[in-house]
Amino acid sequence: MYCKKAHKIKYILFAIGMIFFQLTTPLAAPADNQPSLRAATIDQGIGFTPPETLSFCGEPLPLHEQYSREMLDREFTIAVYDRAQVVMWLKRSARYFTFFERELKAAGLPDDLKFLPVAESALIDDIRSRAGAAGLWQFMKSTGRRQNLRITTTIDERLDLFASTRSALQYLAFLKDKFTTWSLALAAYNCGEKRVSNAMSEQKSNDYYHLSLPRESERYLYRLAAIKIILKSPELYGFKLPDDQYYQPLSNKPVSLKLKNEFSLTDFALQLDTSYHTLKQLNPHLISKRLPSGNFNLLLPKGCNHKIAAILKTLKPVPRRSNYDLASYTVKNGDTLTAISHRFRIPIAKLKKINRLESSKIMIGQKLHLRH
Q1: Same domain for 194 and 125
Q2: What is each CA distance from 260 to 203, 289, 316, 344, in whole angstroms?
Q3: Is residue 300 domain-shared with residue 194, that is, in the same domain?
Q4: Any residues with CB less than 8 A from the CB of 48 and at least 6 apart, and which?
Q5: Which of 104, 184, 269, 309 is the most buried (most CB within 10 A)?
Q6: How much helix, strand and coil, in percent to the nearest 5, is found in the chain?
Q7: Residues 6+ apart with CB under 8 A from 12
Q8: Is 122 left (phi over 0), alpha (psi -120 to 50) or beta?
Q9: How far apart are CA 11 and CA 6, in angstroms?
Q10: Number of domains in the chain
């Protein structure tokens, strides 16, 4: 018993000594080849003072109100102290922002919307949320299909940079027309059109900053504003990266393909003198081991685009998947009867008849028969 107590005392004294050593030892200076994060250790503080005026998408935030100033302060502080996250934002922004800016300008939309995928996905192109949202713009399946994105067993265009960006901008333009202000449009993008409409009706207000919404949605505009502040002037907050630390922008354009058959992605890659892994990295929306049939974008390594036509003539189509032989299907989050009809090539009227459905309404977990 005495021996155990003595050992415990030794461990406690050792731990106290290590803590004291860490507190009194100065931080090492970063090596020359490492990112220079000059601001700011936690002990020194950031010293952020909210600006007197700030706008997002051309609309001013009500920073004259104490609540709004505190909300912005909170989102800025949470973001700027997550040093690794901001460094990764900066590195990835070099890859995507030029493309976003060009698409936003062509669509006549505010440049500030390029910060939305930073908040949504941290600019990770193949990210998926627990709720089922996917891609840079974090579309749910139902919303993605409504925006004409293909989501099948072979392709998920929510993960396609080009298709998803154009669909997101169309959807944002629609939301702006519907709700008239960007703040309400962005809130609807975050928590859904119905929830924002109901809140406006129940609370008799059309001012985002004075609406009671889900907590995440109330924080959303302030988070976007904080991201804008940091990424517009990262050096002010201690983030200065060497040029070679930024990720290279996508300089090659996608090829638009329309295929009648499916082909082995591995065979296609080998014919291109590249690898299956490389094609999957460039095209996260190809979610199976096949090139899908139908229309889709394909991003290839530089110098490969001209080879496609000749290669496709030599490849043998692979047999269609056996989905159509399934006897039943269990409804998943985001499914609609229309989407299931397209996926299994069964007319909606036939699906309703087989399952004795009086309407097109289906529920998650519901088992649908696909044949008599």
Answers
A1: yes
A2: 53, 17, 12, 17
A3: no
A4: 73, 76, 77, 80, 237
A5: 184
A6: 50, 10, 40
A7: none
A8: left
A9: 9
A10: 3
- In a shared domain, residues 219 and 76: yes
225 and 97 together in one domain: yes
Amino acid of residue 292: P
Domain that holds residue 270: 255-314
In this structure, are residues 282 and 271 in contact, taking their beta carbons and an 8 Å threshold? Answer: no
Which residue in 203, 166, 200, 202 sits closest to 180, CA to CA? 200
Placement of tokens 């709004």 in the chain: 68
pTM for this predicted structure: 0.76
Residue 337 shares a structural domain with residue 188: no
First-to-final CA distance of the chain: 74
Q: Counting every residue, how long is the chain? A: 372
Q: Both tokens of residue 195?
A: 């929830």
Would residue 7 count as lying in a domain? no
pLDDT digits (tens, 9 = 90+) for 27-69: 333 333 333 334 444 334 456 777 889 999 999 999 999 999 9
